[in-house]
């Protein structure tokens, strides 16, 4: 008789979270100790962490949807940049922040459509397609940008009643502008859709084995188009966050590599929404810490080295985890109907 043993619960959790879970636990312990010593500084750092992580997790969700369906998207940087510019212009022309956010989302979705057309219909090399989008966005925003444009303000924080009065957690999670709230909700929605719905099952099927998915009647082309366009809209929301919520204005190349960092965040998170969110928070915490160290001046070292902290962390993460994460099997492979 064959004897089977069940895997312990702690082992299952470790297999899912791995080193990322250990890092998050260590970070939470450090936050608790820091809060007991300096509550105001800790709250400020955590607020900055959430703000810094928002465009990263949105960009990671964009890349995740595309790659789960088999399409590599390295054009996230360009989608965010052009969406930030279009959202900014819409705010200048209409004075309506809601319409400006929609314009940013639409710009990202249109670039997603362009990427899907190049990758799925034309069957171009997907890396080249993403590079085209990045170059296009840099060229368009640089050419049409005009200095001195006046905006109609930016999105303001919305306090969620008594929840915002909870020590530490309240000011960080329950006193934020709308796109930050939307990001937290999107993480949950994308996770549920990917792993608990028929749409998510089909998305993962065309990313793992498109020919088998086609055999059972799944339209591979449609699923890839739809996911890349939806992902583009989410990247557009990240761009709208930069100009309409975080800064309130536009500058050339203001994305500053966030689209590429979002790809690293996605890989570190093992192509899962919650994993990507945890990785984005880790990078955001590193960015917030380097800002805090520069302002306090507690370390007698050049500020350039402190500014390198988040990017060194990204390199270490990629070097340590990119080989251990398994991407979708059919990623980057154009599909030919048999």
Please characterize this protein's 3D structure.
The protein is mainly alpha-helical and 338 residues long. It has one domain: ABC transporter involved in vitamin B12 uptake, BtuC. The protein is built from 14 helices and two strands; from the N terminus they run αααααβαβαααααααα. The chain has helices spanning 9-37, 39-68, 76-94, 97-121, 126-144, 169-173, 178-196, 198-208, 210-215, 220-246, 258-268, 273-296, 303-307, 309-321; strands at 158-159, 175-176. The chain has a two-stranded antiparallel sheet with strand order 1-2. Helix 3 (76-94) packs parallel to helix 5 and helix 11 runs parallel beside helix 14. The N and C termini lie far apart (45 Å). The model has no long low-confidence stretch (mean pLDDT 85).
Overall pLDDT score: 85
| SS-based class | mainly alpha
- The assigned CATH architecture is Orthogonal Bundle
The strands making up the biggest β-sheet line up spatially as 1-2
Distance between the termini: 45 Å
In angstroms, what is the radius of gyration?
21 Å
Q: List the total number of helices.
A: 14
Which SSEs are present, and which pair or pack?
Layout: H1 9-37, H2 39-68, H3 76-94, H4 97-121, H5 126-144, E1 158-159, H6 169-173, E2 175-176, H7 178-196, H8 198-208, H9 210-215, H10 220-246, H11 258-268, H12 273-296, H13 303-307, H14 309-321
Antiparallel strand pairs: 1-2
């Amino acid at each position: 008789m064959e004897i089977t043993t069940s895997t312990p619960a702690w082992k299952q959790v470790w297999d899912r979270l791995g080193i990322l879970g250990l890092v998050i636990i260590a970070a939470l312990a450090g936050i608790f100790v820091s809060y007991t010593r300096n509550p105001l500084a800790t709250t400020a750092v955590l607020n900055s962490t959430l703000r810094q992580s928002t465009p990263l997790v949105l960009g990671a969700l964009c890349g995740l949807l595309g790659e789960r369906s088999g399409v590599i998207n390295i054009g996230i940087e360009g989608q965010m940049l052009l969406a930030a510019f279009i959202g900014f212009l819409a705010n200048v022309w209409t004075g309506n922040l809601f319409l400006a956010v929609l314009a940013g989302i639409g710009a990202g979705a249109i670039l997603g459509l362009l990427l899907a057309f190049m990758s799925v219909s034309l069957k171009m090399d997907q890396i080249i397609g993403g590079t085209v989008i990045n170059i296009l966005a840099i060229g368009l925003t640089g050419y049409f940008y005009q200095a001195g444009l006046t905006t109609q303000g930016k999105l303001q924080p919305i306090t969620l009643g008594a929840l915002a009065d909870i020590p530490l957690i309240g000011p960080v999670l329950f006193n934020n502008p709308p796109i930050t709230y939307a990001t937290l909700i999107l993480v949950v929605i994308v996770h549920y859709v990917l792993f608990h719905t028929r749409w998510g099952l089909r998305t993962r099927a065309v990313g793992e084995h498109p020919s088998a998915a086609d055999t059972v009647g799944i339209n591979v082309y449609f699923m890839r188009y739809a996911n890349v366009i939806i992902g583009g809209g989410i990247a557009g929301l990240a761009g709208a966050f930069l100009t309409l919520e975080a800064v309130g204005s536009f500058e050339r190349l203001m994305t500053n590599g966030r689209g590429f960092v979002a790809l690293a965040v996605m890989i570190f998170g093992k192509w899962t929404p919650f994993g990507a969110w945890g990785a984005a928070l880790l990078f955001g915490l590193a960015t917030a810490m380097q800002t805090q160290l520069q302002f306090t001046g507690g370390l007698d070292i050049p500020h350039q080295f402190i500014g390198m902290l988040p990017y060194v962390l990204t390199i270490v993460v990629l070097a340590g985890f990119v080989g251990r994460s398994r991407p979708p099997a059919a990623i980057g492979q154009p599909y030919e109907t048999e």
